[in-house]
């Protein structure tokens, strides 16, 4: 478990109070590792906030990347935003209304482990006058 926080929900609630924009996205970036199977001692499942760079690209599909997910070696769409979360994993960004793809930079690779039915990678949608919650996990855990 992360030092200073009883659970991930508590950290996310804390970070949500930091939002200072009216259109865009925000979230908490954590890393999860260890054995997180429900029948195992919960102390073996560890999580903690991280401040890896987050990159937001124009909407990206599996046709626009190189390498195998969840760690891609290159993204062949336009990089629109690069964010560095704080030491509590909090990040926020302003973007116009639209669809985008979000990646976590990890050791020179682009991490994303979520897809939609159109082969879109870690897709998000920003709506005018709304702030979308985009909590992200760099997941090394076993389930």
What does this structure look like?
It is a single chain. The chain has one helix and 13 strands, in the order αβββββββββββββ. By secondary structure, the chain is mainly beta. It is globular, with a radius of gyration of 15 Å. The mean pLDDT is 93.
Beta-strand residue percentage: 35-45%
Q: What percentage of residues falls in helices of 4 or more residues?
A: under 10%
Uncertain segments are none
Distance between the termini: 16 Å
Largest sheet, in brief, is: 6 strands, antiparallel
Average residue pLDDT? 93
The dominant shape is globular
Rg result: 15 Å
Number of helices: 1
Compute the number of strand runs.
Answer: 13
> What is the H-and-E element order?
HEEEEEEEEEEEEE
Structural class, by secondary structure, is mainly beta
Topology:
Elements: H1 8-16, E1 24-35, E2 45-49, E3 54-58, E4 65-66, E5 71-72, E6 74-75, E7 79-83, E8 90-93, E9 98-106, E10 109-111, E11 123-126, E12 131-133, E13 136-142
Parallel strand pairs: 1-12, 1-13
Antiparallel strand pairs: 1-2, 1-8, 3-7, 3-9, 4-6, 5-10, 9-10, 9-11
């Amino acid at each position: 478990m992360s030092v200073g926080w009883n659970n991930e929900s508590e950290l996310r609630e804390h970070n949500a109070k930091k939002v200072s924009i009216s259109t865009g996205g925000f979230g908490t970036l954590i890393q999860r590792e260890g054995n997180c199977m429900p029948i195992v001692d919960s102390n073996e499942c560890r999580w903690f906030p991280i401040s890896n760079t987050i990159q937001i690209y124009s909407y990206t599909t599996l046709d626009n990347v190189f390498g195998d997910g969840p760690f891609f070696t290159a993204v062949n769409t336009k990089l629109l935003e690069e964010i560095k979360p704080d030491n509590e994993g909090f990040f926020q960004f302003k973007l116009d209304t639209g669809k985008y793809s979000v990646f976590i930079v990890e050791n020179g690779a682009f991490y994303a482990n979520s897809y939609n039915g159109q082969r879109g990678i870690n897709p998000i949608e920003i709506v005018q006058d709304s702030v979308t919650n985009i909590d992200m996990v760099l997941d090394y855990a076993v389930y």
